[in-house]
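Researcher: Good morning. I'm working through a list of sequences from a screen, and I'd like to move beyond sequence-only analysis. For each chain I'm collecting a predicted structure so we can compare shapes side by side. This is the next one on the list. No need for commentary yet; just the structure.
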Amino acid sequence: MCHNIIGDLARFCFLYFIVYIPYTCSFWMMFGGDVEEFETVSETLFSLFRMTLVDEYNYDGLKEENPVMCDILVGTYLAISAIVMLNLFIAMLSETFVRIHDNASSNALMERAAILSCIHDNLSDEKKQAYYKHVHDEPMKEYYDDDMALEGKKHQR
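Model: Good morning. Structure tokens for this chain:
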């Protein structure tokens, strides 16, 4: 499971840096050195990371320096990084967990089938015939109403 999560994290980081690095360059070219929290490249990198987490950043200083580019850069960066990227990361992890769970369930059913097959193979002929006769003569009968089954599914959600 950890191997799959690390793989998802690596794919997400690669995709995130494809967006993060160009936006860092854009913010640095527009506001670098002139706006507090954007005075050095490392401060710009950290401020953009905080923007991704929808944390506080110096929006007023950016707006004062260049109002049009501030709205364009901040708006598109927040839309892409905070909304699209983080939701994509959540979806990737959810899909991984579902895939791992389905695989584990399939393996458990296969193990159960292997155990039952082994037990069946080790039964004596006399016990096998008694079992076959029991299944043939006394099948399990249960009442089934499809309306009740549909109601049960509604309550499970």
